[in-house]
């Protein structure tokens, strides 16, 4: 068997893990989930879920992935011979398949906006109507989604990943700086404080089981946990690296970028008299409006959408990576064709999601659009379930001696983490899940 690739440096791994985590989850999904779920309560629950549940699972994925040193199915078979845990790998493949099928739709929207920013066509009176006219045009959404998937496949199959990760070393900080500038502009608009209150002063009437599950799903989605993506990345990690610090860094960065996205969007939402509950179009409605209030706004907007596209691609490649690496199980020579075959299949499965804002907008599944259904299947069901299994695996299948040897943190931290993944995390996921089901059936 060929020697498996390894990250050439710790920074390579951290960049890839952070690149996978930071993407549409923090920048697009977080603001719209906050907007449709009552603001601050969701923000608070999201932070708690990230720190208390997402972070321990992220670390669990790092531990299992590095210990296994192979694709997820092979690793789990090796670590728990003769047991069914390896099914978790196939579940991760299925969930990331569906995730990418609708993620690529939004990736396509970004391409559409980038093209419009370049051709100076974003100076419109009604941004909400404009957004709807774009996403309901079947030809445009499908073409954009296809281009986005094409880019993702091309990066995964051509081995230029290293270059992408190195580029994210300056692209991500630049995106961060842009966010700060935008937040300042947004916060200095007339009436902006209403948005800050919306983000930080809790309205407890929104505290429900559904909000809690949504916040948990958001924490998982934006950390890329529960689908074995991080396990896959950690399997390429050399033994000497410290895992704890990387997991903490990725989690903090993710919370900071999410909050910053909130501080960009909500002050402007209220100052410009828009609805916070706009839904998936929220950032596409608000961002062009903010840029129009900045000198040379259009130039900045082009750069911004390029940076956003970049952040989105570093996430989408990790989703395709799980599918490809599990699908081919180490036969390197077939990697190229596998990337294309799976990538095209994912595109095809994503077509109904892409069309669910136009041609298929009348089709409802469980009271929501096809796009919502794909999101529900993954964020509300697949990822929490995957996270639960990962937590139990790290807690009970791997012995304390084994996990301690991988973690190499302070003994108290090792023990705390073991306690969390054994009892607190599984119990929390199960309770949140059951509360949601009870609410659904009420
Ligand atoms: N964390 C990514 C984002 O926030 O955009 C989405 C994601 C990537 C989820 C990879 C799951 C995954 F495996």
Topology:
Layout lengths: L9 H12 L2 H13 L3 H29 L3 H8 L7 H32 L8 H9 L2 H21 L2 H27 L5 H8 L8 H15 L5 H6 L8 H29 L10 H10 L5 H32 L6 H21 L14 H28 L2 H8 L3 H31 L1
Helix pairs in contact: 1-8, 1-12, 1-14, 2-10, 2-12, 3-4, 3-9, 3-10, 3-12, 3-16, 3-18, 5-7, 5-14, 5-15, 5-16, 6-13, 7-14, 7-15, 8-12, 8-14, 9-12, 10-16, 10-18, 12-13, 13-14, 14-15, 16-18, 17-18
Bound molecules: 4-fluoro-L-phenylalanine.
4-fluoro-L-phenylalanine binds next to α1, α2, α5, α10 and α14.
Structure, described:
The chain is mainly α. The protein has one domain (about 10-440): Hydantoin permease (Orthogonal Bundle), CATH 1.10.4160.10. The protein is about 75% helix and about 0% strand. Helix 1 (about 10-20) packs across helix 14 and helix 6 (about 125-135) crosses helix 13.
How much is the average pLDDT?
93
SS-based class: mainly alpha
Taking the alpha carbons of the first and last residues, their distance comes to 55 Å
Tell me, what's the shape? globular
DSSP strand count = 0
What percent of residues adopt helix (DSSP H or I)?
over 70%
Text of the CATH class? Mainly Alpha
**From N to C, what is the helix and strand string?**
HHHHHHHHHHHHHHHHHH
Q: How many helices in DSSP terms?
A: 18
The CATH topology is what?
Hydantoin permease
CATH homology group: Hydantoin permease
């Amino acid at each position: 068997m060929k020697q498996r690739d390894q990250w050439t440096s710790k920074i390579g791994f951290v960049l890839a893990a952070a690149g996978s985590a930071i993407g549409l989850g923090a920048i697009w999904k977080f603001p719209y989930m906050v907007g449709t779920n009552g603001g601050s309560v969701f923000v608070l629950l999201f932070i708690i879920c990230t720190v208390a549940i997402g972070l321990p699972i992220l670390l669990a994925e790092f531990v299992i992935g590095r210990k296994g040193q192979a694709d997820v199915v092979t690793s789990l078979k090796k670590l728990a011979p003769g047991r069914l845990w390896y099914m978790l790998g196939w579940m991760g493949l299925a969930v990331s398949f569906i995730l990418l099928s609708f993620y690529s739709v939004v990736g396509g929207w970004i391409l559409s906006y980038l093209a419009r920013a370049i051709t100076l066509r974003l100076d419109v009176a009604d941004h909400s109507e404009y957004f709807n006219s774009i996403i309901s045009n079947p030809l445009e959404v499908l073409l954009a989604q296809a281009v986005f998937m094409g880019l993702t496949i091309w990066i995964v199959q051509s081995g230029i990943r290293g270059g992408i990760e190195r580029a994210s070393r300056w692209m991500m900080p630049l995106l961060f700086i842009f966010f700060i500038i935008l937040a300042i502009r947004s916060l200095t608009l007339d009436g902006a404080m209403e948005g800050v209150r919306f983000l930080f002063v809790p309205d407890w009437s929104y505290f429900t089981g559904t909000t809690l599950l949504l916040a948990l799903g958001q924490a998982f989605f934006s950390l890329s946990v529960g689908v074995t993506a991080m396990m896959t990345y950690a399997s390429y990690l050399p033994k000497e690296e410290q895992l704890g610090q990387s997991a903490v860094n990725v989690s903090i960065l993710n919370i900071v970028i999410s909050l910053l996205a909130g501080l960009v969007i909500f002050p402007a939402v209220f100052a410009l008299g828009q609805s916070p509950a706009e839904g998936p179009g929220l950032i596409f409605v608000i961002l062009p409006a903010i840029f129009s209030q900045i000198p040379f706004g259009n130039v900045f907007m082009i750069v911004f959408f390029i940076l956003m596209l970049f952040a989105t691609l570093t996430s989408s490649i990790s989703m395709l990576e799980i599918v490809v690496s599990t699908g081919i199980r180490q036969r390197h020579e077939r990697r190229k064709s596998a990337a294309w075959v799976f990538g095209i299949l994912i595109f095809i499965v994503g077509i109904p999601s892409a069309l669910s804002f136009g041609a298929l907008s009348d089709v409802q599944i469980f009271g929501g659009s096809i796009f919502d259904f794909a999101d529900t299947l993954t964020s509300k069901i697949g990822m929490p379930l995957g996270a639960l299994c990962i937590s139990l695996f790290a807690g009970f299948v791997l012995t304390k001696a084994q996990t301690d040897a991988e973690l190499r943190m302070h003994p108290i931290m090792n023990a705390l983490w073991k306690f969390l993944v054994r009892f607190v995390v599984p119990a929390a996921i199960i309770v949140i899940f059951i509360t949601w089901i009870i609410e659904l059936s009420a």
